[in-house]
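task queued by scheduler; priority normal; single chain, no ligands, no partner chains; default sampling; output format set to structure tokens
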Amino acid sequence: MSSGAISNYGSTAGIGKHWWDNARQSSTLFNGIFDDIRIYNRALTASDISELYGNYSGGGTTTTTDTTSPTGSVSGISGSYTSGNTVSYSVSGSDNSSLSSLAFAVTDSYGSTKHSQSYTVSGTSTAQSNSFSTSGWSAGTYSYSLTVTDSAGNAKTYTGSFSLTSSTGNGGETGNTGNGGSTSTGDSETLTSGKKKSGYAAANEWRYYTITSSVMDAQIDVAVQITSGDADLFIREGDKPTEKIYDCMSAEGGRTPENCSQPNTGAVTWHIGVRGYKDSNYKVTATLSKSSAAQEECDVSGSVLDTDGYPVVKALATLSRGRTTLKDETDAEGYFCFDTIRKGTYRLYIAKRSYDTNRSMVNFRGDPINNDYTLKSRSVKSKLILEIRQAAPN
């Protein structure tokens, strides 16, 4: 290996050929073979020469495989926010050779993507900034991830999380209208059998509902009528459904109604999830249908349940109008039935010892009437009175 200045004769350079004089009248060719000729526009360092020597295999050079993973970071995201806040963040990446892409995503606790952004980049380092709104997001914990990939295909993922609290006091549920007087339980709204509820779900957003069945209910039928956009329906017994875990799922597409039906197994809570495929307005209806005993042809019938949803056996149902009085005792399923009665308005009393009497009016116009009735146990009230009396001073 030699070094020094290269002579410039003002003409085409030659490799492996020696001119005897400046007039270029004669020359001598190199007796041998040249391989892997390189010309640099800079002086090679000792490490450059060492790397070239290490790559030499006797028949040329070999390509060194880049196995070094790139590095990255996420900044600007705090540990907690309030629903509706805008979150600003920055992502960065660096690599020993060349970057290829950055991919950032935010997912909820069910794995649904709430926000995502990808960047195609080059060079050895980059930094990007963006933001997303949490408007309409439910309270809970959200995870974010940044995947940095270099031009050799090496990738590394960085993760983090933040919590979101409700700004409305009902678990972060916003955007629903037409509630029909129902209440919200956590981040799920309670449905009444047979009654429609209007709602809105943004793309990739979940809206949850619940309805509790009794042992007398044989089946649950859920329908989602899409008024704009596109949404999918999921139902599950006992817990919230996800895209992978459910008892029934309907994804017809567009404004085609979504429908799910499942047999009911007893006094359970059904969870209904509506997931926006696109920004969607919809109406959801859950209907609980009675068992075969409750389908008996009766003019006026009903199921008598306690406050836990269990049937009240041997409760006395009394239907009266003027001088007409009809009585029936509830069976093992808490069911009573009055048949062959005249049209008119009746008083209905349902009573049993240790329960408060349920009183209501029934307007029979010829079409069968079937309702659920609740009897509240007096034991709770009696216990409270007893405890108060015991605590009173002598």
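post-processing summary
- Confidence is low (pLDDT under 50) at residues 168-186, 382-386.
- The chain has three domains: 71-165, 184-290, 293-379.
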